[in-house]
Amino acid sequence: MPWNPALANTDIDLPRLEERLRASDQPPRLSFCLDGPAGTGKSAWARHLARQLGLPVAEKRASDLLSKWVGDTEQAIARAFADARAEGALLIFDEADSLLADRRNAARQWEVGQVNEMLTWMESHPLPFVCTTNLAESLDPATQRRFTFRIRFNWLRPDQLRLAWRAHFAAPVPADVTVLEHLAAGDFANVARRLRALGQDDTPAILSELRRESEAKEGAARPIGFGR
User: Fold this and answer.
1) How confident is the model at residue 211 (pLDDT cuts 50, 70, 90)?
2) Same domain for 167 and 146
3) Cα–Cα distance for residue pair 119/116, rounded to 1 Å
4) How many domains does the chain have?
5) Residues with Cβ within 8 Å of residue 4, at least 6 apart in sequence
6) Is residue 130 within 8 Å of 30, Cβ to Cβ?
7) CA 161, 164, 168, 170: dihedral to nearest 10 degrees?
8) Which of 66, 78, 181, 218 is the least crowded, having the fewest Cβ atoms under 10 Å away?
9) Helix H segments across the chain?
10) Is the same domain home to 22 and 88?
11) Could you report the per-residue pLDDT of 143-202, keeping only the tens digit for each?
12) Gap between the Cα atoms of 185 and 40, Å rounded
């Protein structure tokens, strides 16, 4: 999804932070942990930040780096940092919890090794980099001091639900949309794609699909009793 600041619900003022970072003559040596549910805009903001800093993006998913062969993951991690440095790029690690899992829970030595490799490079990398995760609670405690900023991306607020509807649908906004919970900007985008494929764009159909998205989320309230 493209970055839409009006649909970001974070615990830090992102526009103010961006303004401060743009004022620097050189790319700042900063690190970011972006935590929050899927679809809340973590990766989109990381790419937006790169544009604000005038840097190319080097984006890596955990699946790009993890290997079944001992030592290969560490080499892939080292290569990702080295390439980003050579290219002057902002490095983004998606699903970083797979690379920075709590070593106290490790069952194999190579699991400890890959976390050590990540931590070592994070400590010395001279350019900004970003880690995104849906599971910040599973990160190794040593990451706490490796990140300059830990930013939480939350579900949309009631006022933002209306904005998200207008951003994706031409149908009138119903009052009921503001009572929905556990929805992110990505959910609206997904529903919009689904309904376009079905050839539907009426308010009842949109609201019904958004309710389904909301009810499917972990932690969302479930109706009690028998359904039809």
Assistant:
1) very high
2) no
3) 5
4) 2
5) 41, 167, 185
6) no
7) 60
8) 218
9) 14-22, 42-53, 62-65, 72-87, 109-124, 158-168, 185-198, 203-215
10) yes
11) 999 999 999 999 999 999 999 999 999 999 999 999 999 999 999 999 999 999 999 999
12) 6
Question: Looking at the domain assignment, is residue 44 inside a domain?
Answer: yes
CB atoms within 10 A of CB 76: 17
148 plus 162 within the same structural domain: no
Looking up residue 9, the CATH number of its domain turns out to be 3.40.50.300
Both 72 and 131 in one domain: the answer is yes
Where in the sequence is the domain holding 186, given as residue range(s)? Answer: 158-215
Q: Is residue 48 part of a domain?
A: yes
Q: Which pair of tokens denotes residue 155?
A: 């579900």
Residues 78 and 171 grouped into a single domain = no
Assign 111 a pLDDT band (cuts: 50, 70, 90).
Answer: confident
CA dist., res. 47 & res. 84, Å (int): 14
CA 39/CA 188 separation, integer angstroms: 9
pLDDT in tens, 53-73: 999 999 999 889 988 887 899
